[in-house]
Structures are given as structure tokens and as C-alpha cells.
Amino acid sequence: VVPGETALAFYKAKNPTDKPIIGISTYNVIPFEAGQYFNKIQCFCFEEQRLNPQEEVDMPVFFYIDPEFAEDPKMAKVDLITLSYTFFEAKEGQNLPLPGYQ
Amino acid sequence: PLSLAGECSAFKERFMECLRDSGYESGACRQRAMAYLECRMERQLMANEPLEKLGFKDLIDEKSEAKPEK
């Protein structure tokens, strides 16, 4: 991937259970300092997504690395940026126990 | 939105094939990336944006300069 050039990447998600799952995903960029240069143009994140039992979907992310990345001396040694996604299950009306309070 | 029916999976496969063949050089596969996004936009699986604004201006300009194909 070249800074400034738009790029497409695919993730795949599968619901291995026998119940539909509604999830939200959030992403993370490593190294942390490279995150400021990561610009996503389109992705599947933040919105709730429903996956039926055994359903598998491709999830595209369309992004670019800000060309300023190439000018930042702190990024000179960075030649690998990792984008990872975590899928959280979104449950309605979940009552989380307050730690230490009963 | 999620493409649950895999409407554009053929375009995705062509793109992935290109990535594998090129040793994962993203720049070598921009034509096929563009085709994939066009597929999604045509099927309302992605907000419509002019391709020039998605970083494909050079590919669009090439297309319009080239002689019309079959």
C-alpha cells in the first residue's frame, strides 16, 4: 500500500452459532501512532450488523494512508501497519452488574 | 450495509486473485478494486460517490481516453 493511494481490503465474519447475532465492530490500528494517518473511506464498522446462524459475510474496508505519513520522521521505521477489527455482540437491555455494588 | 447475498463476490474474487498474483501489491489491483466498488454502488450496497473522488481519477481518465471497446 502506498500512502495517498486508496486501497481495498477484505475481512470475513462468520456466525458459528445457531442463533442470529447482532454485532457492532470497532477497529484498531497498530502501531498506535500510525492510527492518525489511517483514513477509512467506507467500512462496515460502528453500525449494528445482523448475522444469521452460520452466515458468513465479506466485509470490505476502503481506506488510504495519509501521504503526510511519509513526511513524519517518527514513522520512518514503520513499514507495517496492522488494522484489526473486533466484533462485539450488541444485546438490547443488557443489565451489566456494577462492580462492587450490590 | 452488509452484502448478505454476495452480489459482488465475483468482483471480489477477481480482485483477490489479482492481489495474490501480484504478491499483494495493492497498487497493481486498483482497476479491479474500482470494479468491485462500482458493483456495490450499482446495487445500493454502498453510498454513491463519483469514482474520481475515491482515488480512481487516473483510471477514469485513462478509460475515457481509450478507444471504445466491444
Mean pLDDT of chain A: 86
Q: Give the ordered list of helices and strands of chain A.
A: EEEEEE
Helix count, DSSP H or I runs of 4 or more residues of chain B: 3
> Level of helix content of chain A?
under 10%
Structural class of chain B: mainly alpha
Largest interface (C-beta under 8 Å): A-B, 20 and 22 residues
State the shape of chain B.
globular
Distance between the termini of chain B: 33 Å
Q: In the residues of chain B, how many domains can be counted? A: 1
Secondary-structure element sequence of chain B? HHH
Distance between the termini of chain A: 52 Å
Structural class of chain A: mainly beta
CATH class category label of chain A? Mainly Beta
Number of strands of chain B: 0
Assembly state of the chains shown: heterodimer
Largest beta-sheet details of chain B: none
Residue stretches of chain A low in confidence (pLDDT < 50, at least 5 long) are: none
Cα-based radius of gyration of chain A, to the nearest Å: 18 Å
Query: Roughly how many Å is the radius of gyration of chain B?
Result: 13 Å
Give the amount of beta strand of chain A, in percent.
Answer: 35-45%
Biggest β-sheet: strands ordered side by side in the sheet of chain A = 1-5-3
Write the layout of secondary structure elements.
The complex is a heterodimer of chains A (102) and B (70).
Chain A: E1 7-14, E2 21-30, E3 38-42, E4 49-51, E5 56-65, E6 82-89
Antiparallel strand pairs in A: 1-5, 2-4, 2-6, 3-5
Chain B: H1 9-21, H2 30-42, H3 57-65
Helix pairs in contact in B: 1-2
